[in-house]
Amino acid sequence: MNRDHISLPHRLRTASRLICKSFITFAALSALTTGALSGSSCGRKICALDGDTVVIGREHIRIANIDAPELRRSKCDAEKRLAVVAKRRLEELLAGARLHVNRGDPETGRTSDRYGRTLATIQVDDRDVGDILVSEGLARNWTGKRQPWCN
């Protein structure tokens, strides 16, 4: 038997297997990368990106009535620590709760911010999420201007 000539069906099977393995590898790496970039809670339909931004489906929502410490652009260690706690608390509030999203800023009537995120207030079991975070010291009422979190 001449091994210099491999049959066409064998070549197709080999190519098909290679394509399948490549696709599976790509899909697995994509899933890992997406999870690492977006945070551990974003594998669900609802997730917190930080203390005042959530993603519901594909919609990014900025909680309109609060300002939470910055997670990615913290100015000091204290702000970073508080931002992590605020995000975790928001995740707890969103987990398994009955949500009601009121789109639009109740103070200004605006529907989106300068980054294109939807402005909204969010109620969890008839309680305002922003009010909860403010009462727990994890956010401030939004006054239209960012206030520093560092001394």
UniProtKB/TrEMBL annotation:
Q: Does the keyword Metal-binding apply?
A: no
Keywords linked to the UniProt accession: Signal
- The answer, when asked if Transcription is one of the entry's keywords, is no
Q: Name one Pfam family in it.
A: SNase
According to the entry, every stretch annotated as the TNase-like domain falls at 39-140
Kindly indicate where the leader peptide sits in this chain.
1-27
Quote the protein name from its UniProt record: TNase-like domain-containing protein
Q: Which organism is it from?
A: Phyllobacterium phragmitis
